[in-house]
Amino acid sequence: LDTLLTTPIGGLVVQAACVDAGYQTDMVAGWCNVRKTRRVFAVKGASNADVPRPIFAPRVSKTQQGTRQVHIVGVDTAKELLYARLRIETPGPGYVHLKFPHCDEVWVAQLTAEKLRTRYVHGRAVHYWWKAEGRRNEVLDCYVYAMAALKSLLSFGFKLDPRPPIQRVAKAPKPAQSSGGWLGGSRMGGKGWLDR
After folding, report:
1. Cβ(183)–Cβ(193) under 8 Å?
2. Could you please report the per-residue DSSP string of 129-179?
3. Furthest-apart CA pair in the chain: how many Å?
4. How far apart are the first and last CA of the chain?
5. Within 10 A of 52 (CB to CB), how many other CB atoms are there?
6. Tens of pLDDT along 18-39?
7. SS3 for 182?
8. At residue 195, what are phi and psi to the nearest 5 degrees?
9. Contact 195/189 with Cβ under 8 angstroms?
């Protein structure tokens, strides 16, 4: 994993990563803690579709041993944002680019494996994300954690899409023209109304 995190891919370098600490929390958090200067974060997903959570919480929780740091990821918030972006049909802000062959039918099926459903508990509507038995959703999980890594950068002050300043070519000043008339100068050679 260290090699993947430090090797440029297509000219890009990994700026942040989130590693799922839902299993073997102390071990994962310990591994990530050593790499926190490279912005490698141990994370745990928290889901409750009716209580919005930030996609990445910069404030950390402690593991059971109390020495390791784990960030909480609002997985429901991230999934809602992803599914809203998947409905955008025109390339632009928020549009999700799915390039073949990497994003084939199997990949897209995993990305969209879950559906938001509603059930009623004591007469109150409760929303939850449902996955059909046997469906795989690893791509969706990876996308959610990638979104959390992006939000971690933003929460620590990084700016997205730094574009180089536009190089403006200085234009030569236009020569002054005497337009005559009462605005730009009188026909008699005196100052015009705007020149006073």
Report:
1. yes
2. EEE-TT---HHHHHHHHHHHHHHHHHHTT--SS-PPPP-PPPPPPPPP---
3. 93
4. 74
5. 11
6. 999 989 888 998 899 889 889 9
7. helix
8. -85, -5
9. no
Per-residue confidence at 144, pLDDT binned at 50, 70, 90? very high
Q: Which residues have a Cβ under 8 Å from the Cβ of 152 and sit 6 or more positions away?
A: 16, 18, 39, 41, 56, 58, 71
52 contacts 77 by C-beta, under 8 angstroms? yes
Q: How far is CA 188 from the centre of its chain?
A: 66
Judge if the upstream peptide bond of residue 101 is cis by omega within 30 degrees of 0: yes
* Single pTM value for the model: 0.73
Distances (CA, A) of 169 to 166, 172, 173: 10, 9, 12
Tokens 């891919």 belong to 9
Supply the DSSP symbol for 120: E
Q: What is the DSSP string of 16-71?
A: -EEEE-SSSHHHHHHHHHHTGGGTEEEEEEE--TTS---SS-SSEEE-TTSSSEEE
What is the CB neighbour count within 10 angstroms for residue 150? Answer: 17
